[in-house]
Every structure is written in C-alpha cells, then in structure tokens.
Amino acid sequence: QKGQKIMHKHLRKLVYSAMFLAIAFVLPFLTANNQQLGNMLSLMHLPVLFCGFICGWPWGLLVGFIAPLLRSFTLGAPPLMIAIPMAFELAVYGCVTGLFYKLLPKKIGFYYLDLISAMILGRLAWGAAKFVLGGIQNTEFGFAAFWAGAVVNALPAIAIQIALIPPLILVFQKNRLMLND
Predict the structure, then answer these.
(1) Segment 25-39, tens digit of pLDDT
(2) What pTM value is reported for the model?
(3) How far apart, in Å, are the Cα atoms of 149 and each of 68, 79, 106, 169?
(4) I want to staple 42 with a disulfide (CB 3.0 to 4.6 A). Which of 25, 134, 157, 179 is the partner?
(5) Can you list the alpha helix ranges (DSSP code H) found in the chain?
C-alpha cells in the first residue's frame, strides 16, 4: 500500500513535469513574431518556476535544463549559444524554487522569498554561463551586458512572475495539487 502511494506520487511528478516541459516548449510561440517582446516576457521561465514549486527541485532542475535546449535543437529558437546559458539559468530556477519550497514554511511571504532568490541565483548562473561562453567565443560579456540582460530587459518578466506565481502556488496548495512535500 505505502509503496503503491510512493509510486503513484512519482508518476504524478513525472506527468506534471512533462506537462510543464510541454508548456515551456509551446508558450514562446505566443511571442514568436516579436523577439524583443519574447525576451521581455520570458514565457519559458513560468512553467519551470512552477515545476520546481509543485514537483520538487530534481524535476524543476531537469525541466529547466532541458526546455531551452529542446527548443533549440528542434526549432532552432533560441539559438544554441543563447539556449546554453538559459539552460543553466532555468535549471537553477527549478532547483531553487523546489528546494526552498520544501525547506521554508508554507506561507505566502516565503513563496516570494523563494521566487526572488531563485530569480537572483538563476540570473547569476545565466551571467556566469554567458561569461564562460564569451571567453570561448572571444566576445566580451561585462557587467553592463549582464545588467541589461538579467535585469533591465527582464523587468516585465520579473513583474509578471512576482505577480502570478505566489498567488497561484496558494491555489495549487489549497487544492492539494502540490507534490513537493
């Protein structure tokens, strides 16, 4: 009986994670004709952040790492040199949201702390990957480029994520849809 419950929970995490990966694959089509808008809204980030919260850090990390690379390899968008740093950024998003949700108290203020921590650490991972790739490609990636890419251009996405995710996590929690316990 107990083994069956554990197996059922793992199967649900797998199914939810596959759903979040599919959503991460499809959402960027909403802004496909406008790359600037796509960069500003960062639609692929939303399902990865949710996956970490809902399914846990291993699933969030995996979905986050796979999503941009899968889109790059199958559609060519984002280009591989953009997808690689994104894979590290999104992997950190999924990992941190899942880990902090599990470790911190289940209260709305901590969901914001979790989300903001994930966004900061993920953007630092993105910046580190961009810096390493810049060295490999002999291109410069300094603080100004990091600040523009990680903060200034991402402000609309940051605002959307902060406005949507914690209240929706409360809804998932209230409806007993959280699998990360």
Answers:
(1) 999 999 988 888 988
(2) 0.94
(3) 17, 16, 32, 27
(4) 157
(5) 2-26, 35-41, 45-55, 57-75, 80-103, 108-137, 143-147, 155-174
